[in-house]
Amino acid sequence: QVQLTESGGGLVQAGGSLRLSCAASGRTFGSYHMGWFRQVPGKEREFVAAITWSGGTTYYSDSVKGRYTISEDNAKNTVSLQMNSLNPEDTAVYYCAAVIRRGTRWVGTSWGQGTQVTVSS
Q1: Quick count: other Cβ atoms within 10 Å of Cβ 31?
Q2: How confident is the model at residue 83 (pLDDT cuts 50, 70, 90)?
């Protein structure tokens, strides 16, 4: 099992940027695919981005493609999400997760506690 802790959330104006980080501990970090999800009250948690364990391939939801970048540093056991050109629709609690691929979907198997991102208009 891997333990995950997010940081870097906060309040930003529309058009601004934030960088989220996720620190992992426990089993070998580099053997996991990692991802980010987000959730707003009353809605299901939605996939945002994923990166394969080798770091070679990244995946993004259509809503963030071109604005967000997921990356990982295996030496530091961290995965990051750089978020640019933020808009109020990006406001959510963001969760880091160890993920697996099921068909066309990414599914979280271990979760962090979440970090709030709020984008003001």
Answers
A1: 11
A2: very high
The arithmetic mean of pLDDT across residues 17-35, rounded, is 85
Q: Which amino acid makes up residue 17?
A: S
Residue with tokens 């604005």: 67
Q: Assign residue 48 a region: left if phi > 0, alpha if psi is -120 to 50, beta otherwise?
A: alpha
- Our CA angle for 2, 109, 6, nearest 5°, is 55
Q: What is the amino acid identity at position 78? A: T
Q: How far is CA 105 from CA 39, 73, 96, in A?
A: 16, 24, 16
3-state secondary structure of 8: coil
C-alpha 32/C-alpha 13 separation (Å) is 33
